## 1
Amino acid sequence: MTAVDIRLTALRRLGAASGRRVGQRVRAEVPVSVKVLTWALAGFAFVGVWLVLFAVAFSALPEAHAQHDLYNSFRAQLAAGTAPLSDAVPEGTPVALITAKQAGITGLVVVQGTSSSALQLGPGHAPGGPLPGQPGVSVIAGRATSYGAPFGQISVFSKGDRFDVTTAQGVFHYVVETVRRPGDAFPPLLAPGGTQLTLVTAEGDGWRSGWAPTHAVFVDAVLDGHAMVGNPAGGVATSADGLLRGDTRGMYPLVLWLQLLVVSVVGGIWARMRWGLWQSWLVAAPIALAALWGATTNAWLLFPNLL
Amino acid sequence: MRVAAAIAALALATVGLGPIPPAAAIGPATSAVTVRKTVQRTFLADGRTTVVDKRNIALTVDQTTGLRSLQLIKVSWSGARPTAGITPDQNSDLAQNEEYPFALFECRGIDSAAHPLSPDTCWTQYGDERFSYGADDPAYPAWRSDAKAAAAERGAIVGAPARQTPQCTSLLFGTTYQRWLPFVGADGTVYPGGVQGCAGQAPEASPANLSGNLSLPSNETFGVSDAHGTGSTNFDVFTAEDHASLGCSSTVPCSLVAVPIVGISCDANGELLPASSRPAPADAPAAAANCTGSGNFAPGQTLPSQAPGDPAVSGALWWSASNWSNRLSVPLTFAPADNVCSLHGSGAPVDVYGSELLVQATTSWAPYFCLNSHLFDLNHVQTPEPQARSLLAQGNVEAIYTSQPPDAPYPVPTVNAPVAVSGFGIAYALDNADGQPVAHLKLDGRLLAKLLTESYPSQIFVRAAYTALADNPLNITFDPEFQALNPGIPARTADAAATLLTVNSDSDVVSALTSYIDADPEARAWLDGEPDPWGMVVNPAYKKIALPVDNWPLLDTFEPLDEYQPGRNDCLYAAPTPYLPLVAAPTARLFSIGLDLQFALAQSQTTCVLPSPIPGSLAGAKLVANGRQASGRRAMFGTVSLGDAAREGLTLASLESRSTVGRGDRITDASGRTFVAPDPAGLRAAAQTLRPDPRSGTWPIDHTALRTTPANAAAYPGLMVVYAAVPTRGLGSMLGAQYGKFLSFAAARGQQAGTAQGDLPDGFLPMTGANGLGTLANFTARAATAVSAQQGAVPPLVAPGPTPSSSSGPAPTASTTPAAPGVPTGATNLGGNPQVPVGGGNGPTNPVPAGPSTRGASPTARGAASSGAPRTIDAEPVSARTPLLGSTVAGWALPLMFAIAIAASAGAIAIRLRAGGSRTR
């Protein structure tokens, strides 16, 4: 018998002595400590798998839902002519509609702001710049992996590809100039009064491609047609709007959600100890799942916004 | 006693979508249509048909041709059954629960004997207006006993889509009957609908009740008939521009369908059905009870919450065969869509930037140009007038619409050719003590100044904390001055009644409005600090403000911190902001102010919403607009253009033109003061006061002269002239000829009042000799020649020689001033090469966000090289490389999670195996 075994045996005796009624038959089963350890490891494994699945699959649902609602409201705003003419609008307000068949983008609504929380709704327009179709350089950023990966495929663009952006001022046709990665030269200078749109997302190489982006990639496109009158940019970029930055606004709710998660899990275990297995599951699991969802959503804000 | 209460409730509830335009609306009368029909309800029992109700309905629609999107048409009816169980908002989701409503719908298609209309093409906003289901046993809702329905429509499940979505399957689990009424879109798409729209709804539809929401209300209306069976409401017409799924347009006719609900005609025993489909004898009494009801409420009674009306007589079953066969339909035809030109699109458009005042006129003029193959696309790009003037001065645009001359003369010779005479109006949505719209309202400059200067504290907690405003009335409805001028309007607490909704951008309208206020001695003295006769004082932040201004500033900084507490206003607790500017909440465009007034959407941003489901959490807390005011209790004011007001059916206030009352007198009525409505007479009188000003090349409006000259008392002070400012040199021969053609048109054909393409719509005073505006039209005609010639000539405002006695059409005189010597003809084409100045130095008014230098201002990590310093274009090194913008976290987050998952699973399995192994040993 090794030292570990001796210790485990002692623990088992302790557990048997403290946790069970006298006279109850001790089933020949794994010791409590091992159970706790395996459950804890299983918990880690579950959280790991959950986060991966959340990133690549589940988070697409709230994004699709947000896009559906945004499309409906933006569509009506376009028809009524009340869509924004500058970026002086609150974060998360729809400002444009982007359609790029080559990159698998059909009618995505672009919202104002590039913070992690804005990009949970869809692609975001960088504050402080003109809207697409207005003179100057507009930047639209989108996630590469999570929340439906709206810009996951924009690096397939090549020079000469065309895509469309719709704003309150009309439909603008853009022609892709370059797909820029670190070290690539900037495109030719913009002529006075010219209009450029830069799409940004993140990408990874090799085994990372598709799920673990390491650097930003830029797609520069120039307007084919007449630019509209510009409006003074009204948006103010915060540090959370920076590319590949997290958004610490998620911290506070995250703590609260985690508390709820802990309470629901502990409560479930407590209920299990003096109640039936299925009853405990039925009551605790939905609460735990909801808390897990809320916690994950807010935790995701802390991750880099283009992920 | 009960009858009196019922009548009072009815009076409260008969208020329709919006106020009825005053009789003095500018413009020609249009076609009205009246249709009549006898409708009845019958019960079939033991082979005998009994008529239980019979009504002779007459329906009148005030305009049925040339309709445009979002236009309000007035619908009135008589002979209907009095409505019971009334809801406050006839457009809301709840309104269908009214008993005996007069339901109005917009349906695609025209009713005919060969092709009767189907409810499939009628628009409803909410899923439950086209879906009926339940879990009753026996399952005999009223529609299953409908004597007029075909046997196939009386089954337990009717119209269900072949494939159910999982959402529908779970939502409909356990139901015993379902009736699906799909909506067929203009493109043929079928939207099955279902509970909460689970099987698919048109994109315009709302899944849930949106009353109080900020979006525009829907147009299906469950109208209220009074105790005599008559009623009226305003119906909002949607065209394909604003409602693609319904798809009404100039080529797709639609109908206004009225369904006077008199109740389901019953065949409770299923005597019209094949024997096998009849209800079991035991179920027949239940079926009869569901079908033969005559209502749960008295006529005029208000619908209690959570208690819908009897389905057999409510609006919820408007689509049932009994109700649908009682319909009256009125065909509607539409004007060409506002966007017809962009769809038609031929060649490069000829752009004119500027004034929102002219939108309704240019919307009518544009199709006249773009649909004529000899003309061109005339495109009005709406921008604030001061911005348009600066664009023109910089040579960035070719032509603008403006109401004022520039501060400094344009660098190239430019004509200011009048193209339309219109103005601003103060629109209101206001209900009197009976809950009826107020038809006439009188406002003076001091009341407008009070509204604009944030001097009404709006809420008791503001007044209690803000000593400077401690003695001021809460809002205009509490103000004794307002009450003296407008007796009979009850005081109502509402943020929107403490302010005048106006635009937040630079605008000539704001300039004209503040000039009017500045010229009013009462208003000016009050602004300078003199209390009004009742002791109300100006907000100290605005004291001695210099007027006029182009852009109304929001100056108040007071924060009533006692109210900014958790549970009271969480948003303002989280982010304290001055309160009164939130009340003012100006918006971006005049047209949207009109829509807000049309539907009484209060814009004051003081309502806090907490999207976070956690109690006490302020995550995502944001202030939103107050939203729709309850019908019958509306109180809000806004600045609009007369053209928009005519299209949107708004009621406009009369403005004070003259007062002979002493400044300190506590007035009790409007005597001694003259108020003028924005009707043709008022505008015509104001037009008489226009005098040419050769220095600015315009006909300025002198508000001081309007005030002080007794002869001008009948002049509406909100008059404004819109000029097309077009350079007469440097446009090039082609563009010059096109703008010249437009000015010739604007001088003659464009001044013909009407609703056809190219006509001048309501809300504008035609520039004709009869209206005293022949000189203006004559100048525009001469300006057209100068613009076509592009020789740098600017004709004199008044033609030399005898002034034309009346506007006799364009007839441009050939005598133009010769070009200045030494000016090369056909100079630079400004249109092809917009001269955007390089770098900064354009001053704060430059509306183009410094084109070249914005390049690096984006967060693309161009580094410090881009930080704002003006750069010359040639010096920019093109060889700059994209720097690495990386993130280790992003690169490792998911791989690490995956690794942890693998490692933990492996560890767990290993430990478990090992523990098992040690046990068996």
## 2
Amino acid sequence: MDKDLFKAALSKDEVAEGLTADFTSSVMEKVEHAAENPSQFEPLVPKRIRILIGLGYLAICLLPIILGMQESALAWMDQLHRLGVESSDLKQTLKFISLLGFVFAALTLTDMLVKRGAFLSIKPT
Amino acid sequence: MISTEQLIKEVQEGQMQAFSGLVDQHKNLVYSLVMRMVKNSQDAEEVAQDTFVKAFKSIKQFKGESKFSTWLYKIAYFTAINHLREKQLLSSSLDLTDIESEDSSALEQLNQADRIKYLHQAIGYLRPIDRNLISLYYLDELSIKEIQEITLFTEANIKVKLLRIRKQLNGLLKAMLNDELQSLIKN
């Protein structure tokens, strides 16, 4: 099958009726609306920042787990204890940070998954 | 007539009305591409409008590294895919995996008008993404590199897909012509 044959067959599909007369004005109406209400279309926090926040919190929430597995971390906690920080307070704080981290990571992940369609249509560079 | 580059510059500088010039210059191009994929004039017009709104919102990021039409094609392509996904029409076609054929002689016995007719029918059975891919290549005569910019497939992937689509079309044509022959024999 040669190129000309393909071209002829595909040309049969080309738009016969075309666009409605007010196409441009309809687009301009939507464009003006978009320009006046940017928050309706753009999220307040850009996606890249949200992803960074999510990854940051994920790192924070993983930190105590990694540290907890290290002997040096125990020594570090001991040091803090000697400085007057109650280990139970420290554990509570770490737990809270971990929980927060998991929540943010989950939210970011859900956001990315739910908006997968929109994700594909991100502005081309 | 103001050039596309001039209109883009004006819009990027904040002159919103200049965007209507860009819409006028490119609306048929966008509509044709979208229509090939969504196959419904009302939906196609809506998707084409959304394409231009998206283009407007991100025009400041257009650096002129590719042609404006290619950039617009890319937005239209993904807007159409999103639309098809929402309507769950993205894979609406026959299952063509079993009817690929290496043999390219399916149309050899026919005259030119019939070849075009059957090929047109066979193309109608392809998935919207595949239909668009061969349209970009054969009808719009875009290079593989330009198609890569629009669809984000790799060059090798595009070549493989084009080859596969041609094989599927051959298989389809064989099946269609066989059916035609069978019905003629019965009558």
## 3
Amino acid sequence: MPTSLLLVEDDPRLREDLQRHFLNRSFRVNACASGTQALNAVQHDRFDLVLLDIMLPGLDGLSLLDELRCQQAVPVMLMSALGAEQDRISGFTRGADDYLPKPFSLAELDARVDALLRRVAFDRGVVRQGESTQVMLDQGCQDVVHHGKAAGLTASEFRLLATLSAHPGEALSKAFLYQTVLHRAYTRLDRGLDVHVCNLRRKLADIGAQHVQIQAVRGQGYILVDTEHA
Amino acid sequence: MRRHPLLWKLAALQVSFCLLLTWLIWTWGLSVERSTYFLSQADQAYLGRYAQQAEEAWQQGGAAGAEALRRQLQHAEDTWAAVIGPHLQSLGTTPLNAEEASHLTFMRKLDWPMSRRLQDELPFVSIEFPQHPEHGRLVLQLPERLLPTGLTPWTHIITHGVAPTLLALLLGLVLYRQLVAPLNRLRDRADALRADDLDNPGLPLQDRRDELGELAQAFEHMAGRLRHSLEQQRLLLRTLSHELRTPLARLRIAHDSDLPPAQLRERLGHEVNDMQKLLEDTLDLAWMDTEQPQLATEPVLMLSVWEALCQDACFESGWALARLPCSLGTDCRVQVHLDSLAQALENLMRNAIRHSPAEGRVSLDGWREGDCWHLRLSDQGPGVPQAELERIFQPYQRLPNSGAGFGLGLAIARRAVELQGGRLWASNGHPGLCLHLLLPAAQECLES
């Protein structure tokens, strides 16, 4: 069953290009030019994802989002040329799942969309837990133990390690990791995840678990590699 | 606690005005009033002649002479009179009765003030014999026509109306000079601003050490900001139009020439990235400049930030990690807004890498200074002329041979650091440039 996408964008050229792009990725796309149209579409159909422009004629994106949230919990990604921090924040508090400032590249859009869909699936427990590495994750204490030594992880660091070790050998995108580990959308200047990774690396090295390596994959994200048990 | 110098100034003015007014009415007004209660010189001489006549009459005619003069006098002046000896006995033939004797208990001399104020009675005047004062005196009730008129309404108006009015006018003038004249100067300045005359010299009013001085300072500050932002706006417009025209021109040429599709895509991608970066940096700077956002701070381990940035820098520049050493330990924790600090440090690092010689190193070290951490990023590049060390932090300022970039990196870094209570400055490290960061240290016990 193809993923169904509701695309709300008033610029006709951008709408057509995006529609063509998602059709090529074999999504089922419903493209709307106004908020009213979109509201209509939502009431008649179910969608897996809504891609929503903020500046729309008539009913604007944020009001549409409010309406939408009253009815269903479909993941919503906002797109906007408004770059100010205030708009990002108000977008999230109103229940958007991600925010993509214009201009963006198609690669970035794909990464964000995939991360969002994946996180939704992850939240529903669809993704199978991968086999764990040799470090012992202590779910009770929210900590990692190696040779009897506990690393003293913070909650975010533990979630990061748990998420990475649930997908060993697989590069997880930053967008996905921000969604699942830090529960926030990834923005251009956000360094939170990188710093958590560096802290986690140091704590793993401190307990002698150097073989568990978190490697950065350029343009993709982070991957957990176990050099001893590979 | 706010000082209120103008309040005290005005209070002092008012108080001195009130005191001056009271003093004027008390002393001057009263003395003017008193002066009107005296007999004129002519009247004094006129009455003195009666005393002389009485003395002559008594010496020549004895008691009968005195009595005759007394009657004549009483008749002429239509008043009561008596010629009195040294023992307050009548020198005439009729002795004084009790009521007449009581007139002698309070007598005035000629040069004393005269008024009806005492029991609404005409005063009794005692005039000693001019030749032999020890022999006696003439006493008479002052004739009505000789009584001084006292204060006339006109004198009253002058002492209690005109003079205070003049004083009040003077006070008004001083108040006007103190309050309104400076405001007028301020208005003239505002008019000058309205007419786009931004380069006027500063107001001399600023030197006043009171509220108006503060107002002038605030005004000058505002004018300065206005001037600054106008300059910024012109610079922004000039730079943006230049910087955007260049990639647009290149796009235009690429579009018009028959490039193979792959090459065209690459060129397109490159130019679009450049324009996007310029736009984002410009908006970032404008956002920090105009919004002055309050950034939420958290304790951050500097070493981890550096490692995270090195990861990207190595990808981008192809440098080996060993060329980016950091001597900070895990004790270096600063209280900052992570993303802004990382952005600032990344800009500094990129700048340093860009200016490094082949196989050069960019290193970070630092030490504790009181409540702050003093971090130093050193490169081995050519450095910056001493005179230009401040200018490199101004937006869109590019030194000769500074290579790529729009001249926004260091400006953004400085704004970002200052927004979280830190400082950023540059010095020359012989060789290379040193960038100094002063950041508030984090509380020790907190866990990030």
## 4
Amino acid sequence: MDTLEKAVDRVLSGDSAAFQQIVDATSVRLVRLGARIMGNQADAEDVVQEAYVKAFRALKAGEFDRRSSTATWLYRIVVNGAIDAKRSRTRRAEQSDLQIDPSWDGAAFAEARLALSELDDWLAMLPTDQRAVLVLQSVEGLNNTEIARVMGVSEGAVEQRLVRARAALRQRRQLP
Amino acid sequence: MTDLEDIDQRLARLGRKTEALRPSAGFSARVMSAVTAEAAPSLLENAWFSSRRLVPVAAIAAALSVVWAVQVDRSVDDELATSYASVELE
């Protein structure tokens, strides 16, 4: 059993502080996923924080049945939260003074944020669910079965959204 | 997007470039603060959890009360029966 599953066991047995290990093990990947769907890191961090609180609440209430791995479960909460937030929220202005950890490569981080902005502009025309499916497949590298599991839809629905998303992007490319 | 760049190629390129994204400094601490606030029970929950400890004591007290009430009832019945019997004898 990996560290993540052991940390879940500890939270389930009443050790709330073990939730820190879950956050440490997953926050980079989840914030990156949220940012790619939201197109904005500040919004992504809000979504991921809410997702962690929901996950903690569910663990405490015994609602996590462990039919999927903890990582997939957290992915699902973040993707659903990001889709809901993107549909309902007014986009927050990206913080130019976002504090980064001094141990990280500042230049790579700045370049990543430029790429995020490019990704966001390019995918802005897509409905949120199509955008999420496209990001999960072509950026996150999940296969259709995994995407279906994360999004709680059939593989057919995933395929349909991918086809529509790609058609919309191709159509936009052909516009003058 | 260049003419030669396919949709998937462009997504893969942007995916690679965004790999360096990280949560901002202090993100983990903010999350744990929100989680800790969630974990702290409210006044009502505190009252509920405290009162739950008294449930076994209350159950035993209730059972003893029933036993006592039945015993008292029986002794009253016995005394009444005795008094009726003495009246008949008289």
